[in-house]
Amino acid sequence: MRLVIRNDYDEVSAWIAHYIKERIKQFQPSKDRPFVLGLPSGSSPISFFQRLAEFCKAGEMSFENVVTFNMDEYVGIPKTHKESYYTYMNTNLFKHLDIKPENINLLDGNACDLEAECRRYEAKMASLGGIELFVCGIGPDGHFAFNEPGSSLTSRTRVKTLAYETIVANSRFFGGDITKVPKVALTVGVATVMDAREVCVLITGAHKSVALAKCVEEGINHMWTVSAIQMHPKGLIVCDEDATMELHVKTVKYFKSIEHVHQSLIGKENLGLQGELLTAEASTAKTTHNRGHDMLVKQLLSAHHATKYLTEEEDEEIDTDDKPRLLKRRRS
Ligand SMILES: N[C@@H]1[C@@H](O)[C@H](O)[C@@H](COP(=O)(O)O)O[C@@H]1O
């Protein structure tokens, strides 16, 4: 798992927006091979949505061959309700993009047969070959989508009763009146999200710091459903400094050191893309002209996942040009 720590919410949003842009560009989607993107709701994504809209407007990227799937939808409020996720997504993102309406997928919380609607949604994802990148937000109790504490880690898209904490938290969108918050929703499951080829979780704010610590430092637990990301082969968490409040200092230093090495080796190479945003695969693909460098990057990136914590001294040395020696030291 990769943990990227940025100073604040703005930097986290910028990072995620750039990351999505680069992933879509690298994928080179076409009509027959679209990029399938999973998207979250909640207030956290709003800033990265705005940035994606700006990229699109500036012609820096296109959603023409992107298919989206949203995570969840309330049951029992009209689609056009100002707090439905349908309205939220259109207002905050879709109407600002060049995305084709038929490429937008949202659960229908007013379907006559809600269970059939959930099955339809899963089948549609599967028919497109699954989700390439699922971006998630979380609640302070570590839920993502509406996978509340205690949700099965093998759950799929289904009808879900909301936890009291979630109803209280979301009442801010319903004039602070918890009686107006829907108590039931449709949501993708934990396994639905974890089936994506890559999962990126956005976590900001001190109120989510306990959830981040549970997710990163403790075991996989259905009471903190986002912790399921530990089992994902390509899990990425992007958080701000405030959200790291409950992490051990050594955990923060460890993940920062990994990012530091990643940038010093990949980011400093002018590969035509922003180094820090590259996935390991994309980095290596871009360096086939240089097999030595290719091997080094591959080795170091896999070493990241296996090494012990860096000492202060090693951390200082990351900037040296003696990369092979550094690699050797880290493996010893
Ligand atoms: N169903 C949504 C989740 O998908 C979202 O992650 C969470 C956090 O929202 P916020 O980003 O506003 O903290 O809110 C709701 O419960």
Automatic annotation (TrEMBL):
Q: Where is this region: Disordered?
A: 312-332
GO CC annotation terms, alphabetical: cytosol
**Which UniProt keywords are listed?**
Carbohydrate metabolism, Hydrolase
Query: Which enzyme type, at the first EC level?
Result: hydrolase
One GO term of the biological process aspect: carbohydrate metabolic process
Q: Which InterPro entries match?
A: Glc/Gal-6P_isomerase, Glucosamine6P_isomerase, Glucosamine6P_isomerase_CS, NagB/RpiA_transferase-like
Q: Which residues form the Glucosamine/galactosamine-6-phosphate isomerase domain?
A: 8-230
Please give one Gene Ontology molecular function term for this protein.
identical protein binding
Entry's EC annotation: 3.5.99.6
User: What PROSITE patterns does the database record attribute to this sequence?
Assistant: GLC_GALNAC_ISOMERASE
Q: Which CDD domains match?
A: GlcN6P_deaminase
What reaction(s) does this enzyme catalyze? alpha-D-glucosamine 6-phosphate + H2O = beta-D-fructose 6-phosphate + NH4(+)
**Family assignment from sequence similarity:** Belongs to the glucosamine/galactosamine-6-phosphate isomerase family.
Task performed by this protein: Catalyzes the reversible conversion of alpha-D-glucosamine 6-phosphate (GlcN-6P) into beta-D-fructose 6-phosphate (Fru-6P) and ammonium ion, a regulatory reaction step in de novo uridine diphosphate-N-acetyl-alpha-D-glucosamine (UDP-GlcNAc) biosynthesis via hexosamine pathway.
Q: How is this protein named in the record?
A: Glucosamine-6-phosphate isomerase
